[in-house]
Design brief:
Blueprint lengths: L7 H8 L4 H5 L7 H9 L2 E7 L5 E7 L6 E4 L2 E6 L7 H8 L2 E7 L6 E11 L17 E13 L2 H6 L15 H9 L5 H7 L12
Antiparallel strand pairs: 1-2, 1-5, 3-4, 4-7, 5-6, 6-7
Helix pairs in contact: 6-7
């Protein structure tokens, strides 16, 4: 049987109400604990939607501490060379609301940041975001509205950081996916070479 949930009351009948301490943990400024987490985080997931509500989530990664805390209520994330689709950035031009999740390897809890984004071609602090001589091509600046830590239950259930659960061979390789879906005219040997060790050498140049 398929039973749709159509209103808040029905949802709360199933989930219950959050404890007050869960509601009270929100902040609208960066505290020392938030800053320490950002300094240790090498990866962020950026969620956006366009004016019609169509959504996108894009990972952003760099050496730990890549997210630059501009001030107590402002965060900046650098954009590096990529595939140039810019789905999330196009969304932001229509709808500035963004949701961010910052991860620290080995930790199940995460830091969530929600706010309003602006895209910048340059900023006074851009030189502080240079990696391997590469200045950000675009800067995603977020005016923070909500910050809070999220518990580790999802990561504990998934065992994401447990190496014994890692089986990357169960899915096609990146080269095989590219051959099947993106670059059918290239040989698998060419694609394996492209996505091999040399791929990492071009992260900040192309």
């Amino acid at each position: 049987m398929r039973t749709e949930i159509t209103n808040e009351a029905e949802l709360r009948d199933l989930l219950g109400e959050p404890m007050q301490r869960v509601l009270d943990k929100d902040s609208d400024v960066f505290l020392s604990e938030h800053r320490a987490w950002l300094a240790a985080s090498p990866l962020c997931l950026v969620a956006t939607s366009d004016a019609s509500g169509a959504c996108d989530v894009s990972p952003k990664g760099d050496p730990a501490g890549f997210a630059h805390v501009v001030d107590d209520t402002t965060l900046a994330i650098p954009e590096r060379p990529g595939n140039k689709r810019a789905d999330g950035f196009s969304n932001i031009l229509q709808n500035p609301h963004v949701g961010l999740i910052f991860l620290v390897p080995g930790r199940g809890d995460t830091l969530r940041v929600n706010g309003r984004a602006t895209l910048l071609a340059d900023a006074p602090y851009a030189d502080q975001m240079v990696v391997k001589g590469h200045k950000p091509t675009v800067i995603l600046e977020v005016a923070v509205e909500q910050i809070f830590f999220h518990c580790s239950k999802a990561f504990l259930r998934s065992k994401l950081w447990d190496p014994e659960t890692w089986h990357p061979e169960q899915v096609p390789s990146r080269a095989q996916i590219a051959k099947s879906l993106e670059r059918p005219d290239d040989s698998i040997e060419e694609l394996e070479a492209y996505y091999g060790p040399k791929y990492a050498e071009k992260l900040y140049t192309s």
